[in-house]
Specification:
The chain is α+β, with helices and mostly antiparallel strands. It contains five helices and ten strands; from the N terminus they run H-E-H-E-E-E-H-E-H-E-E-E-H-E-E. The chain has one domain: YbaK/aminoacyl-tRNA synthetase-associated domain (YbaK protein, Alpha-Beta Complex). A five-stranded mixed β-sheet has the order 5-2-3-6-9. A three-stranded antiparallel β-sheet has the order 1-8-7. Belongs to the prolyl-tRNA editing family. YbaK/EbsC subfamily. InterPro entries: Prolyl-tRNA_editing_YbaK/EbsC (IPR004369), YbaK/aa-tRNA-synt-asso_dom_sf (IPR036754), YbaK/aa-tRNA-synth-assoc-dom (IPR007214).
């Protein structure tokens, strides 16, 4: 009989517990460059309900977090227009890790090293639960999207492009 993997605490899960936010844990086998689609496949989840956490920067190198459907790309042009920036681009992996405190592939929107504005694709709020990274590669957590809005003061955007 297969024994379930024990996942130790992460800054993200500690943060959620401290704020009395319930979540479910979903460990999976991390594969380099597998992303949200690999996690969804292994866990039999709807990829549209699995959210990726992306660290980006505006034209003045100010970091921000974007939470987007796993099967969509971010329109940086739409995002910039909606956030009031002139230009937004993804961070280099080392820069993203410096801002978030998490390894790329394990970035959670919760308990980042630097406090950053959070933007969430508004259609994610149509789900009662979304699956975001729990702060470690190979570890998703299921959480109400309203938790991102309330705890992280996440603003809504319409910035998704079909892959």
């Amino acid at each position: 009989m297969a024994k379930e993997k024990h996942v130790s605490e992460t800054p993200a899960t500690q943060f959620l517990k401290k704020h009395n936010i319930s979540f479910t844990e979903h460990p999976y086998e991390y594969l380099d460059h597998g992303g949200a689609s690999e996690a969804a496949r292994q866990l039999s989840l709807d990829l549209h309900q699995v959210a990726k956490t992306l660290i980006m920067e505006d034209e003045q190198a100010r970091p921000l977090i974007v939470v987007m459907h796993g099967d969509r790309e971010v329109s940086t042009k739409n995002l910039a227009r909606q956030t009031g920036a002139k230009k937004i681009a993804p961070c280099a992996p080392q820069t993203a890790q410096k801002h978030s405190g998490y390894l790329v592939g394990g970035t959670s929107p919760f308990a980042t090293r630097k406090k950053m504005p959070v933007w969430i694709e508004e259609k994610l709020l149509s789900y009662s639960v979304i699956y975001v990274n729990g702060g470690r590669r190979g570890y998703l957590i299921g959480v109400a999207p309203s938790a991102l809005q309330s705890l992280l003061d996440a603003q809504l955007v319409q910035a998704s492009l079909t892959k």
